[in-house]
Amino acid sequence: MHHALWQSVLGEVELTISHAAFTTWFKNTELLDVTDETVTIAVPNIFAKRQFEVKFDKQIKAILEKNDVSPRHVTYAIKTTGKKAISRETTAPQQSQEVTELLGSSSPSLHSQQAAGNGLNPRYTLDNFIVGSSNDLAYTACQAVAADPGVKYNPLFLYGGVGLGKTHLMQAVGNEIARNQPDARILYVSVETFVKEFLESIRFKKKGFSDKYRNVDVLIIDDMQFIAGKEKTQEEFFHTFNALHQANKQIIISSDKPPKSIPTLTERLRSRFEWGMAIDIQMPDFETRCAILSAKASLSGVELGRETIEYLANNIKTNIRELEGALNQLLAYAEMRNVTPDISTAEGLLGNIRHSRPQHLSAKQIIDKTARHFQIDVKEICSAKRDKHIVVPRQIAMYLLRSELHLSFPKIAGELGRKDHTTAIHSVEKIEKAIKLDFLIREQVSEIREKLYA
Ligand code: ADP
Ligand code: MG
C-alpha cells in the first residue's frame, strides 16, 4: 500500500523536474512508514536527506495531501544499504545519458537553446544546485523569482567571489522560467557583451541595440563589476533598467562585490541596484562541500568513500569551481590508471592541484608556453589561421587566460589578436566542456598548467 502511494508521488514529481534530477534524487527512495503524525521516507544518504528537506519537502507534502495523507511531519531517513562502489565500467549507457544531461555536455538542447540566442545553458538548473547555509538565501530568492518573475525582488542582485555559483544560479532561474513560460522572452548576457554591443551600436550606428535589451521579460546580466569605469555604458544601462523595471520585467544581476563596492558606479545606478534584493553567496561550509563532491561524483557514476570526500573538502576551500576541478582530476586519474579513486590517490594528486600561483604569471607567458607545448609558433597562435593544429592550442590558450588570470573576454580576444570577443567566449566554453569529455584535452591542459607553475 505504501508502495502504491509512493509511486503516485513519484509519478507527479517526475512531471515537474528534469529527468536527470529525478533519477539522481528519487531513484533510491521509498516510503517506509505512514502514521497520522509522520510519514517517513527513506533516502540513500545524508546528502540526499538535506536536499529533500530543503527542496522537495513542500511538494511531497502537497502530493501526499492530494492522496488524502496529511501527516504533520515528513521525515527523511537515511537508508543504510552497504552499497558497493560503482565503477565507471558498470555504468549503463542510459545513465551516462542522464549524467551528460546533468553535467551539461553536448546535449542537443544545448545547441538549440544557444541557437535561439537567449544565452541560457541548460546544464545549469535549480535541481542540480546544491543548497547549504552559504547559499540558501540566494537559492530561495532565486526560487521565488523563478516562480514569479518581476514580482518580488526586482532587481535580484547576487554577489560573491569567483566560482561560488552565481552564474549557475542566474542561469538556473532563466531556465526555470523558460520551462514554466515557454513564451517568456529571456536574455542572459555577460555585461561584457552589453558593453561591446552598446559601443558598436554607437560606433557603427547599428540599430536594434536598445530593442534587444528592452523587449524582454527577464534580463539577466552577469559580472556587472566589469561596468566599472564605463560611464556611457552605465548611463545606457540605467535607461534600460528603468524601462524594464517600470514594465515589471524581472532583472537579475551578478557581481563579484556588492553594489556599494563597485568602483566608479554612478550613484543613481548604485541606488537602482539596491532597490530590490542584494544577497551574497559565500564559500560553502565543510558539510556542503562534502555534499557537492558526493553529488558530483555520483552523477559521474562513481561512489566516493566518505574519507576521500572529507579529504577533498578539507583541502579545497577556495571555491566550488576548484572543488569540481579537483574531483574531475581525481576521477580522470583513477579511470586512466584503473585504480579506485580513494584517499591515497587524492593525496597524491592534490599536491599538483594546490600549486601556489606566482604573481608574475602573465598573459604572454601563458600564450608562449601553450604555443611551445604544441610546438607551434607564437605568431601562428595569434594569427587568424584556421588549421586544426593551431585552432585547438589557441582555444586552450584562451581557456588558460580565463582560468588562470581571470581576464575578461575582450581582453582574451585581444591577447590573441582577435577583435571579436565572442570567439573567446566560445573557445573557453569549448575547452571547459572538452576537459570533461576528452581525456586527451584534459591531459594537455594539465600539462601546460604544470609548466606554467613549474
Ligand atoms: P561564479 O559565477 O560565481 O563564478 P559558477 O556559477 O560559474 O560561479 O560556478 C562554478 C562551478 O561550480 C560551476 O560548474 C557550477 O555549476 C558549480 N557550482 C557552484 N555552486 C554550486 C552548487 N551550489 N551546487 C552545484 N554546483 C555548483
Ligand atoms: Mg560567473
Question: What keyword list fits this structure?
Answer:
454 residues, alpha/beta, GMP Synthetase, Chain A, domain 3, Rossmann fold, Helicase, Ruva Protein, domain 3, 4 domains, 5-stranded parallel β-sheet, binds adenosine-5'-diphosphate, binds magnesium ion
Verbal overview:
It is globular, with a radius of gyration of 23 Å. β6, α10 (231-246) and β7 (250-255) form a beta-alpha-beta unit. The chain has 4 domains: 2-78, DnaA, N-terminal domain (GMP Synthetase, Chain A, domain 3, 2-Layer Sandwich); 110-280, P-loop containing nucleotide triphosphate hydrolases (Rossmann fold), CATH 3.40.50; 286-355, Helicase, Ruva Protein, domain 3 (Orthogonal Bundle), CATH 1.10.8.60; 363-452, Chromosomal Replication Initiator Protein Dnaa, Chain: A, CATH 1.10.1750.10. It has helices at 2-16, 19-26, 46-66, 93-103, 108-116, 136-147, 166-180, 191-203, 209-214, 231-246, 267-273, 286-299, 306-315, 320-337, 343-353, 363-373, 378-381, 388-405, 409-415, 421-437, 439-452, and strands at residues 30-34, 38-43, 73-78, 156-159, 186-190, 218-222, 250-255, 277-280. Helices cover 57% and strands 9% of the residues. The longest helix is centred in the first third of the chain and has 21 residues, at 46-66. The strands form 2 sheets. Strands 5-6-7-4-8 form a 5-stranded parallel sheet, sandwiched between helices. The model is unreliable at 82-115 (pLDDT under 50). Residues 129-130, 135, 162-168, 292, 320-321, 324 line the site of adenosine-5'-diphosphate.
